Amino acid sequence: MALASWRSPLARALHHNRSLTYSRYVQLATVRLNGQPANRTIVFRGFLNDTNQLRFITDSRSDKAEQVSQQPWGEACWYFPNTREQFRLLGILTIVSAAHADPALVKAQQLQWQELSDTARLQFAWSHPGKPRSDSDRFDPPSPDPVEPLPNFCLLLLDPIQVDHLELRGEPQNRHIYQRESSTESHEEWSVRSVNP
Amino acid sequence: MALASWRSPLARALHHNRSLTYSRYVQLATVRLNGQPANRTIVFRGFLNDTNQLRFITDSRSDKAEQVSQQPWGEACWYFPNTREQFRLLGILTIVSAAHADPALVKAQQLQWQELSDTARLQFAWSHPGKPRSDSDRFDPPSPDPVEPLPNFCLLLLDPIQVDHLELRGEPQNRHIYQRESSTESHEEWSVRSVNP
User: Fold this and answer.
1) In which band, very low, low, confident or very high, does the pLDDT at A7 lie, cut at 50, 70 and 90?
2) What are the backbone dihedrals phi and psi of residue B11, each rounded to the nearest 5 degrees, phi first?
3) Assembly ipTM
4) Going from the N-terminus, what domains does chain B have, and what CATH number goes with each?
5) Which of B36-40, B132-136, B161-165 has the lowest average pLDDT?
6) Residues on chain B touching A81 (C-beta within 8 angstroms)
7) How far apart are CA B111 and CA B132, in angstroms?
8) A170 in reach of chain B (CB within 8 A)
């Protein structure tokens, strides 16, 4: 698939902010089961193969996994400190566990697990996130298998349909909104317009 | 009003990250009119007087002003890079324009305007945010009055009812959830519990 037009400014931002580990951290907004918004920091893991879908990881026991199954829309807000620019990526979230119906996505989920550091993998062997902490909880479990994902490990995909790019450094500021106009398996059509910041 | 118990770890985080301008930037999630989540970076401006409400600013012409009038719940996600910790503050948002019914809040809105830099005030004299940009749009308007706010200037308040504090540096990690149990005009009762990260 051809890269969407917003991929080039995003790649540039990632490059110019690569000295900061946390320039790969984004804040993901979802909607809670009761209709209230939720927001948390997650780590960008790259794009899915040759698509425009962003890869993240999550635990099937987390609140966001439950939220996404009810309301699959999410907006990632990504601020780059060095270049003072922000990308807001609105799209559909997909949670990929080993039980997902699409074998290509299950393959991607396995590869994602294998790419993780030991430390990152270990978190999926921890006690149930968000539950009351007790002394019996296990935070020093044995290292999980580096090849076969633990059952609660999920790949989280964000498939953007709108990207709002704001450059605070402009004169006065620049803001572009990219919109996906159509898409097929192999091609996406994106429009871009300049709007007031 | 007594400071809520989460104010002390938050003050510590602000102190230890004060070298980074952007440690005062937070991502605010709201819900769009169509039920999808929205997320953007905003600047923390301090607390409202002796309350536990966080102050931000917004333009009455922005999407978030419209979103808040329909769904007043918001969650701010605040990541502190130096200390590797995150606060998620869930609460009710209030938009305070000059027309607000509470004179004390209108007073706070005026003071907020007067505290802003000239550059920050100027943005409220810009053309309608989010509308298509055209050459006739004004981004070099005369400086607005530093005393009397422009009519589209609003104070934005977040009154938290839950604060989720995650410390990535812990062994393994520490996570505390603060919950507001009750509140009167002069007092708030907060509980805190330790949960699995």
Assistant:
1) very high
2) -65, -40
3) 0.96
4) 7-127+141-194 (2.30.110.10)
5) B132-136
6) 20, 22
7) 32
8) no
Alpha-carbon span B165 to B177, nearest angstrom? 6
Would an 8 Å CB–CB cutoff place B73 in contact with chain A? yes
Give tens-digit pLDDT for B63-98.
999 999 999 999 999 999 999 999 999 999 999 999
Residue with tokens 């871009």: A192
Q: Which helix (H) or strand (E) segment is A183 a member of?
A: strand A174-183
Residue A178 has phi, psi (to 5 degrees) of -100, 135
Q: How far apart are CA A48 and CA A38, in angstroms?
A: 25
pTM of the entire predicted model? 0.97
Is pLDDT of A190 > 90?
yes
One-letter amino acid at B96 equals V
Q: Which residue of B has its CA nearest to A42?
A: B79
Each residue's pLDDT tens digit, B31-46: 999 999 999 999 999 9
A residues 77-136 lying closer than 8 A (beta carbon) to B: 77, 79, 81, 86, 88, 90, 123, 126-133
